[in-house]
Amino acid sequence: IAKVKILRLDRIKAHYALARIYENQGMAEKAITEYKALLEFEPKNFYTWRQLGVKYANIGQYSEAEKAYETSIEIAPMDIEAYLDRGDLFFKMARVSEAGKEYEKAMEIAPYDGRGFLALGRLYRQGGKLDDAENIYRKAIKFSPENAQLHLALATLMEEKKQPDLAMSEYKEVLKIEPANKEAKIRLESLKK
């Protein structure tokens, strides 16, 4: 029995290693084959299902990606990565309302993470709902005041809304958190001119 377990573990490690190698070489179809082989050994591995979804999405097989994300979420309903990834998938598919719901779920599960807020804000911005995007970014900053990416998103939004003083204030916040942030430095300098 011990030998069988060791062989099984070795095969799992081999499939995972091959999947990663294929990913790094840009060979998505072969990576998908390895992830499917992994699922034969571990059908309840949410991470493998999520990775399978990512690979399918990358090659444009959206319905397969959606199924993989759904399975990942069924197995691990608190994994925000799957909601973010599925939201991005829906966004690519122009299913904006569904994308928004996925980002909102990620925000609900992990309000201090920030990525769900950034994604929803991006969605609002691209839909021309700049005030909604601003509200989302400000809400996120209340949860995570030290998140430079949230301040940066708000700063660029304030530029877009033609509010340079507010933009400069947010760029300064970014630089307090990340003094080496090149984008914030460049944009702040351009606003000072």
Per-chain topology:
Elements: H1 2-24, H2 28-41, H3 46-58, H4 62-75, H5 80-92, H6 96-109, H7 115-126, H8 130-143, H9 148-160, H10 164-177, H11 182-192
Structure description:
By secondary structure, the chain is mainly alpha-helical. It is built from 11 helices and no strands. It is elongated and about 65 Å long. The protein starts with a helix and ends with a helix.
Major β-sheet, in short?
Answer: none
What share of residues is helical?
Answer: over 70%
Number of helices in the DSSP assignment: 11
Radius of gyration: 20 Å
Distance from first to last alpha carbon = 73 Å
* Uncertain residue segments: none
Mean pLDDT: 93
Quaternary status: single chain
Q: Tell me the strand percentage band.
A: under 5%
Gross geometry: elongated
Structural class: mainly alpha
Question: What's this entry about, in short?
Answer:
Helices cover 80% and strands 0% of the residues. It has 193 residues and is mostly helical.
List the main descriptive attributes of the protein structure presented here.
about 0% strand, about 190 residues, mainly alpha
